[in-house]
Amino acid sequence: MAKSDTDTALGLGIDAGGTQTRWALADAAGAIVAEGSVAGLSALQMGNAAGRGTVRATFAALAQDVLASGCPQRVCAGLTGFGGDSELLVEWLAELLGIDPDTVIVSNDIEIAYLDSFQPGEGYLVYAGTGSIAAFIDAHGVFHRAGGRGVTLDDGGGGFWIAREALRRIWRREDEEPGAWEDSAMARSVFDYVGGSDWAFSRQFIYGRERGEVGKLALAVAASAEHDQAARLILQQAGRELARLATALVSRFGVRPVVLAGRAAELHPLIAETMRATLPPEVPLRRKTAQPHYAAARMAAQPQH
Asked: What pLDDT does 184 receive?
């Protein structure tokens, strides 16, 4: 896309998740004038030198793509795993984009995703990507959560959880009946994805890949659901896990509408169907294809007073 004549009015929105990092440029009227994606990242990677190098390299690739379309005046970035320490992240983005650090805001990705679905106080967002979380921003702007504790501890119903459950079931069955995988559509799909049926392939995949890459294995699970009862059971349990997150917030703050969003939520209809069946009937539920990078771009493009 050609560089815009209204560069000074552009806001850059960034939505960084484990699977990919999406960006968008919006003008002051809220129109999206450019968008793209680069590799996934997590703020948790900032905890070691190798991870910091990966994050900076991803930011550099993103900045190169963005600047080919326009020069943003302000930036609003949401990062998965973000815990509040934004100084270095802000510094890198400002440097790579050639703007003042004061014009860069970094926050948790879920806060931006929430504001893409609701005004503060309106409802609950359940987001299932690589991980899972339920979010509520109350009328005073205070952020409340259920889940979102990370894939090592929980994140039930997210892509990583689905992938881990599939591999766990497959290998437990192999312990009991070696070679049983050949009769399982899910196991065949999963082993094809990880590179082979030997344990060495699964071990390298689950322990050697970034969490976002592992989460993509959920695609293979969903693809086999029509022919494999074990895959269907995993997807149904994912729906129950996501319903649990919503119910936790309902029990704390009362009945409000629930939006289900995120790529893992869209893997298969069984997930949303089971979530609906598990939630109390008085709790409204709707699915939404989340575009938090759009919401962030529009927030960044708003005139500052």
From this structure: 96
